From TrEMBL:
It comes from Oreotrochilus melanogaster. InterPro entries: SBSPO (IPR039942), SBSPON_C (IPR056801), Somatomedin_B_dom (IPR001212), TSP1_rpt (IPR000884), TSP1_rpt_sf (IPR036383), TSP1_spondin_dom (IPR044004). It comes from the Eukaryota. This is SBSPO protein. Keywords: Disulfide bond, Glycoprotein, Signal. Residues 1-29 form the SMB domain. Pfam families: SBSPON_C (PF25031), TSP1_spondin (PF19028). The keyword Manganese does not apply.
């Protein structure tokens, strides 16, 4: 008899009042819908974006607790707030096997448009498992990608930009030991990161470790 106090501890101590369930119904936490995703935290960097939600009703009488009120997701913004394009170090490099290089050079020479290219050496840091599961004949070259190996990637016409003399995603302007991203053409499950070592006029890597910028 008397007032019923809504303290869920009584369920463990077995001294709840007789009408506890009616007087103190369990109410779970209720939250709002997620807000829209924010923009990237910082431009020209691999950072994050955020979305949030609010508590509409606090949990009562042992109800389900509130879930996370904030979520973050990876984010890259390729343009500054002033509208200028970010440095090339952010752009994922698109690569294919160096075996296509001879045909590309012949075609460029026939057109009379070939410009002097270059070669960039990288050390592979991380590789997705999808590179090892490429069963199509044109994707077998991806199986030679191994973490820690040095690879050579040629920058040739027509991928070579005639003004900057660089290929998109070659990491020019990146800091020493900066992690750069690459993507294998022909298999979206094959990608990873590498570090730029140096730029050369010609490649010196074995054929199985020689690739082309697209």
């Amino acid at each position: 008899h008397g007032p019923c106090y809504c303290d869920q501890v009584c369920a463990r101590t077995l001294d709840c009042c007789h009408d506890y369930a009616q007087a103190c119904p369990v109410s779970p936490c209720v939250v709002s819908q997620w807000s829209a995703w924010s923009g990237c935290a910082e431009p020209c960097k691999t950072t994050y974006r955020v979305r949030r939600r609010q508590i509409l009703q606090e949990p009562r009488n042992g109800g389900e607790v509130c879930p996370a009120l904030e979520e973050r997701a990876g984010c890259v913004e390729y343009w500054t707030q002033q509208g200028a394009e970010c440095k090339q170090s952010l752009i994922p490099a698109l690569i294919t096997t160096g075996g296509f290089g001879k045909a590309r050079k012949k075609r460029a020479a026939a057109d009379g448009n070939e410009k002097a290219g270059n070669c960039v050496e990288f050390q592979l840091v991380a590789i997705t498992p999808g590179c090892l599961h490429s069963h199509h004949p044109y994707t077998h070259w991806m199986q030679y990608l191994r973490e820690g190996h040095t690879v050579c990637v040629e920058c040739q016409h027509p991928a070579l930009d005639s003004r900057s003399l660089h290929c998109s995603g070659d990491g020019s302007g990146s800091k020493k030991n900066q992690l750069l991203h690459w993507q294998a053409v022909g298999n979206p499950q094959c990608k990873g990161t590498w570090k730029r070592i140096r730029q050369l006029d010609t490649c010196s890597c074995p054929s199985v470790h020689s690739f082309l910028f697209i």
